[in-house]
Amino acid sequence: MSDQVTNILLVGVGGQGILLASEILSETFMLAGFDVKKSEIHGMSQRGGSVVSHVRYGKEVFSPIVPEGEGDILFGFELMETCRSLPLLKKGGKVVVNDLCIAPPSVLMGQEPYPEGLVDRIRAGFPDVLLVDGQQLATEAGNPRAANTVLLGAVSKRLDIAEEFWLAALEKMVPKKAFAVNLKAFLLGREL
Predict the structure, then answer these.
(1) pTM of the predicted model over 0.70
(2) DSSP codes of every residue in 2-24
């Protein structure tokens, strides 16, 4: 195990399952034998506001916060929130992003338009981008709300952690009644 710390940022809006995804990530890394630190920032998350979760793992991790410009992976649940968080990534960082736009209140009230060309903006700064149709794949798995687990599956392929740890964490953290759908969603994401 190297001394390097891996920094993952999860960003989106309230209600997208970001906190569950960060719990599963953290559990996976702990099961794989790493030190893990996690922190969340909720901006009116109950009202569809921004949610950012920092997950850091390695041999020894001292702080739960990913310093600006040091993120290894940006795990975006919504396009505009992903764009907003690009400064947190380091040069050469990876982006896994849900192909989804959720209009904030200012757009819904007609005060401003939803920005265009977000995927191109992301790719301009970070060529290693995986655009995921999370809702479509989650619907195929049996529940459109499992998009977070589809995205988790896609992220899992970008990390050198054995599948057994991912599956064990998923089984531990997801409610039993929702496990079969979430397992299918996770595996669809891993196939991307």
Answers:
(1) yes
(2) -SPPEEEEEEEETTSSHHHHHHH
